[in-house]
Amino acid sequence: MIKQILFIITLLITFGVFAYSVKRLWGFFSLTKPAYPIKNIGARISHTLNVAFGQTKIFRKPVIGLMHALVFWGFLVITLGSIEMVVDGVSGLDRAFASTGWFYDVVIASGDVFALLIIVFIKLFILRRMFLKIKRFTGVEMTAKANWDALLSLYFIGFLMVSLICFNMGYISSHPNGYEGVYPVSATLVNLFGWDFSLLQEPGWWVHLLLIFTFANYLPYSKHFHVFLSIPNVFLANLEPITKYPNLESITREVKLMLDPEAAYDESAEVARFGVKDIEDVSWKNYMDSLSCTQCGRCTDVCPANITGKLLSPRKIFVDLRKRMDEKGPLALAGKQDNKSLLRDYISEEEIWACTTCNACAQECPIDISHPNLIMDMRRYLVMEESAAPAGLNVMFANIENNGAPWQFSPEDRMKWAD
Amino acid sequence: MADVTAKGEKPEYLYWVGCAGAFDDRYQKVARAFSKILNHLGVSYAVLGKEESCTGDAAKRAGNEMLFQMQAMQNIEVLNSYEVKKIICTCPHCYNTLKNEYPDLGGNYEVINYTVFLDEMIRTGKLKLENNPFKGESITYHDPCYLGRGNGIYDAPRNVIKAVFGEVKEMKRARSFGLCCGAGGAQMFKEAEKGDKEVNIERTEEIIERKVDKVASACPFCMTMLTDGIKLKNKEAELQNIDIAEIIEKALNL
Ligand code: SF4
Ligand code: SF4
């Protein structure tokens, strides 16, 4: 009974802190603009099954991809087990889901096996981070804190698995006359040592759940927030071809008006700003992307601008957006301002103009972030609000306007190729 | 188009030549090659000629949405006035813009990339390729971003090359992993930002490493960037950049 009360109190604290984090982020979301409408639920579900659960994009790097996929799939089954542990803790029951029979055995058994696999992989991931020089783990946007954050999360996951196996071993030892579920790894370990591990059961259980609770509350402040957000982010992804860049509706209205002065002018549709300068101009999806980004650097790794030594790093765009929101969000919610902005104080014009819109980054991103769209939104701000395009582009604009071609040729000569 | 319409004819396809096809010295050859193939096939088609204007792709990607939409609406007006149904494009940037960005502004057409069209013609036996003027030569293919990653067209250009060369020697970065030529997103029209090297040089080095006689491309920007890269590396004698349409033109001896 005391255990139950203690557990319920811990659980309430966990939910309380988590609710606070969510509320804080919710406030930040209220500062952003609408994105595209979320339609085609069927297509979205199959997309999510494919990209998130099937890990198809992760597999673009086959070896490390398989390791990540196994950790991910392991997490899914282990989460089912953790839910049972929480139910047990609240209700005082023992193995509340055991009545699901063979399904229970499958879930528990695979959780037990995955726990071991994950321990091995996490160890490898940690060693890789510490000893291998992997280019995509570095870059200006990868601060010491980001690296530390990555390592901490890996340790969290590692200890989560160790505690799970300890709990399982303890459970097996304390039920010598038969127990619920199947434990290929833990049972083998118990038999191998031949000791009585029953003392491990209680601490294993507490440590496992307390780690989950702490981890869950640490995530919203870490790059590993993707544990929660990546699946929804993939579900909400833009399903259009990646090179389709949406048309600005406010411009459509103006252009229609210019071409047909008779058209009715809609005052209510006045927009404050073209393009993106700061966090108030981004869409909720842009901000969600920035929270979901794992900072894995796969985008930057394939970026032609980055490969050839230019300043642009697509990952940095979203890392910067998140940082800027952390800085300005609380101020903006309190109705205050500062004299900084995302563009220029965080992201330089030089970065913005280096993008070839090749979409290699968007193709590679495992959680379907579109970097070029946000980059072009910032170009829109520079061009349409400040007329601050590089000289060559102004010439191109003028040519299109006057000659209907980006080069200085007369439309009269358009058929010369056929001569 | 104006001429054929005046005659009361309704061509099946509109061939969208694009600014590069119309004005770029090198790419005019591609436009010519493709129109020769269309004539050879006896396809009913027309071009807009003086009435064609830039799709606005580069303006849009450079952030000038106003200019883009002006271009788009004017083009749509022209296309709709001729009741155009099917458009064939050689330029992937025109293709992407017409296919993906015009519909929301009232321009709804069936937009076809020429590599898909050629592949289809070869598969259905309408285009017969009997001789190979490139005997003994090897070839690789450079994926244009707006064709491959953007619109999933990876196999059609390869099939066309294979129909003549038999084989495509793939580079390490191919298909959805392909490396940009460096010209998209309006880069073509401005100085590159400071870096260690230009993107087209990086790509050209990769092509040279593959040790092939030819590199096929399917985009005017890629054509310019790769040809420049090859020139800068002084490899014009052993490595040439050729467009998919030019391969077929040569194979048909047009
Ligand atoms: S944007 Fe995508 S690919 Fe790039 S670091 Fe973030 S999660 Fe990785
Ligand atoms: S679209 Fe831009 S940011 Fe993305 S990989 Fe290409 S050049 Fe880099």
Strand fraction band of chain A? under 5%
Overall body shape of chain B: globular
Radius of gyration of chain A: 27 Å
Kindly report the average pLDDT value of chain A. 92
Main sheet strand line-up of chain B = 2-1-3-4
Strand content of chain B: 5-15%
Overall body shape of chain A: elongated
Between the first and last Cα atoms of chain A, what is the distance in angstroms? 93 Å
Largest sheet of chain B: 4 strands, parallel
Largest interface, C-beta within 8 A: A-B, 71 and 70 residues
Helix content of chain B: 40-55%
Named once each, the bound ligands are: iron/sulfur cluster
Helix-strand topology string of chain A: HHHHHHHHHHHHHHHHHH
Based on secondary structure, the structural category of chain B is alpha/beta
How many strand segments of chain B?
Answer: 7
Quaternary assembly: heterodimer
The average pLDDT value of chain B, as a whole number, equals: 95
Question: Characteristics of this structure?
Answer:
heterodimer, A: 419 residues, mainly alpha, 18 helices, 63% helix, B: 254 residues, alpha/beta, 4-stranded parallel beta sheet, 3-stranded parallel beta sheet, binds iron/sulfur cluster
